[in-house]
Design goal:
- The structure holds 2 protein chains of 2 kinds.
- The longest helix of chain A has 25 residues.
- In chain A, about 50% of the residues lie in helices and about 5% in strands.
- Chain A is globular.
- In chain A, strands 1-4 form a two-stranded antiparallel ribbon. In chain A, strands 2-3 form a two-stranded antiparallel ribbon.
- By secondary structure, chain A is mainly α.
- Chain B is α/β, with parallel strands linked by helices.
- In chain B, α1 packs across α3, α1 packs parallel to α8 and α5 packs parallel to α6.
- Chain B is elongated and about 65 Å long.
- In chain B, about 50% of the residues are buried.
- The chains are: A mainly alpha, B alpha/beta.
- The interface between A and B is medium-sized, with 26 and 27 residues.
- The complex binds iron/sulfur cluster (2 copies).
- One iron/sulfur cluster binds next to α2 and α4 of chain A.
Chain lengths: ~240, ~350
């Protein structure tokens, strides 16, 4: 069967696949995953609605006014950033489709044009962020390089209360399993040194009184994350086939 | 004055008869069923849109004004078998259970109403075949008695879908018109169910949501206060899940641009409005022209839906096209006035 519509092809990645003893792991881009939606997950919209920033989600009637004026979608031209669509996916509960946008959804620049224009009073910008938070907190979206960078950044900052750029770079390289060529390292190192930001390792700066601040802040962040995870993971789709 | 004949005792006919009586005109009210109130009585309509008042509260007082009214001669279980012009009015033969009498009437109000579309004709939805596929007129009765249960196993549903425009806006079954009521009544039903049973999820499959005029408010409320969900697309077919216990609605979510096969416990069909059998008979009896849809054609549809343009014949209610109950009642009032003027001249 010839595949004419490229956008319909979703690459299927198999980490470990053997056929008749032959290793065929890898990307299979001519396998079409079924496009049939077989369930509606009320959990997503229930969760979004329960959040203080998400409680206008039910109002959306898909007119598209928000997307029409959206900085990211229209002005910047990032077509796949479509706040109207994100809201629909969350509202009706198409989680699988929604997960594809787990990264894109954070591209919102919070200009709030959508909120100004929505004829139904949806606080679009807040709702879109809440949907993003859901995807993150429910742990259902695959972790991306951007997520790992976020994590490394937060940990780095928490460590001394001030960012250690060179340290962040090292951690991130380790997380991604990357090796930057020595020449490139030297170039970056020089410019960091010249701009006075090469305080790393034992030389790193430290925020005053951070030893006492740190546990408090960390405790708060951990607790917040735990709560969001718990409530988002508690939502479960209603199964399609009966037992 | 010879009596004025009102044919049909639904909301429009009841209203016409009550107004005629209050004008002091002798009235002959003929209804082919044994009860008063038309379709709302027959199907036990629950609450009426948009203000969600019980149907009884609206129709009850009308029925009271008509029953035991000295000015109104009421014949239920009766029909007009023949009609001929006679002077300014008509001579009709009134056929009751086993009697036939000839009467002279000075004017005629046709309030013969509509029939709900027979959803079995939309066979791909399996109505009449799968017990859990309901017509929304049946759901009205269930909501009315607060017994919304799956007919197949008597269990409460967890998830209900409404399919709009069943037998409306559909050239395959020959009904291209809009029934006007399907959207608002389905939304109202979803609201009623969510009010009493918030644990039941309600989804409405729509092409457009036509809650015209001030009914828009109910549509907004259904989303914002009751979390009713709207999925754009017309369901193509209904089937059973593998175990045969739930229904699957197969369609396309046109916003998602993807096919969907979603399981539901109950599927409710918003069946359209067709000209009632009484309307067809009336058009033949009194030689009233009908439009391509089969509804009676007013003289100037752009001006009013009451004047037929034929001497002494007036229309009220859904005989001229799909209509809401308040519109039918209002038209009954207008038709009463017109017929009274004609008869008195
Ligand atoms: S403008 Fe408002 S109602 Fe329209 S699609 Fe955007 S969020 Fe929904
Ligand atoms: S606030 Fe975000 S979603 Fe809204 S218009 Fe601006 S960039 Fe787009």
């Amino acid at each position: 069967m010839p595949i004419v519509e490229k956008s319909l092809v979703r690459v299927k990645r198999t980490e470990k696949l053997e056929l008749d003893g032959i290793d065929v792991s890898g990307d299979w881009n001519t396998f079409l995953e079924s496009r049939v939606q077989t369930d509606l997950d009320v959990g997503i919209v229930d969760w979004v609605r329960s959040q203080p920033q998400g409680d206008t989600i039910d109002r959306c009637w898909q007119c598209g006014t928000c997307t029409a004026g959206c900085c990211m979608h229209t002005d910047y031209g990032l077509e796949e950033f479509n706040p109207r669509y994100f809201i629909y996916l969350a509202q009706i509960g198409y989680e699988e489709e929604l997960r594809r946008y787990a990264q894109t959804i954070w591209r919102c620049v919070s200009c709030n044009k959508c909120v100004e224009r929505c004829p139904k009073g949806v606080k679009v910008e807040e709702v879109v962020h809440t949907i993003g938070t859901y995807l993150e907190a429910s742990g259902r979206a695959p972790e991306s390089p951007a997520d790992r960078f976020d994590r490394a950044y937060t940990e780095n900052l928490l460590d001394r209360g001030i960012l250690d750029e060179a340290g962040l770079f090292r951690t991130y390289e380790r997380l991604e399993g990357r090796k930057t060529p020595v020449r490139e390292l030297l170039r970056m190192g020089t410019s960091l040194l010249l701009s006075g930001r090469l305080h790393t390792g034992p030389l790193a700066h430290r925020t005053k009184g951070w030893r006492r601040m740190r546990p408090v802040l960390k405790g708060l962040l951990d607790e917040d994350l735990r709560q969001r995870r718990e409530s988002a993971q508690a939502t479960r789709p209603v199964g399609r086939r009966e037992p | 004055m010879n009596p004025i004949l009102v044919l049909g005792a639904g909301p429009a006919g009841l209203s016409a008869a009550a107004e005629l009586a209050s004008l002091g005109a002798p009235t002959l009210l003929v209804e082919k069923e044994s009860y008063l109130g038309g379709n709302p009585t027959r199907w036990h309509y629950s609450l009426l849109a948009p203000d969600l008042r019980p149907a009884e509260e609206i129709l009850g007082p009308l029925i009271q004004r008509v029953e035991h009214n000295p000015k109104i001669e009421l014949h239920t279980g009766s029909l007009i078998a023949r009609a001929e012009p006679e002077g300014k009015g008509y001579r009709v033969s009134l056929q009751s259970k086993d009697t036939v009498q000839t009467r002279e009437v000075s004017a005629v109000i046709l309030a013969t109403g509509f029939d709900h579309f027979d959803s079995r004709r939309k066979f791909e939805y399996g109505y009449g075949h799968f017990p859990d596929v309901l017509d929304f007129k049946e759901l009205e009765g269930m909501i009315h008695d607060d017994k919304v249960l799956r007919p197949s196993d008597g269990k409460p549903p967890r998830r209900i879908a409404w399919i709009l425009c069943v037998g409306s806006r559909d050239i395959q079954i020959g009904n291209p018109w809009c029934c006007r009521m399907g959207c608002v009544v389905s939304i109202k039903q979803a609201v009623e169910i969510r009010q009493k049973h918030p644990e039941i999820d309600a989804y409405i499959y729509y092409m457009d949501v036509r809650t015209y005029g001030l009914w828009e408010d109910l549509y907004w409320k259904s989303m914002q206060e009751y979390g009713v969900k709207f999925i754009r697309g017309r369901i193509g077919a209904v089937s059973l899940t593998e175990g045969g216990k739930r229904l699957i609605a197969t369609g396309e979510d046109t916003i998602l641009s993807r096919p969907t096969e979603v399981p539901f416990d109950l599927i409710v069909l918003a069946s359209g409005m067709e000209p009632g059998t009484g309307t067809k008979e009336a058009s033949e009896l009194f030689h009233v022209p009908v439009g391509p849809e089969g509804f009676l054609t007013p003289k100037l549809s752009d001006m009013n839906t009451i004047d037929s343009g034929l001497p002494g014949i007036y229309f009220a209610g859904a005989a001229t096209g799909p209509k809401a109950i308040p519109d039918a009642i209002t038209e009954g009032m207008g038709a009463a006035l017109r017929a009274f003027q004609y008869a008195r001249e």
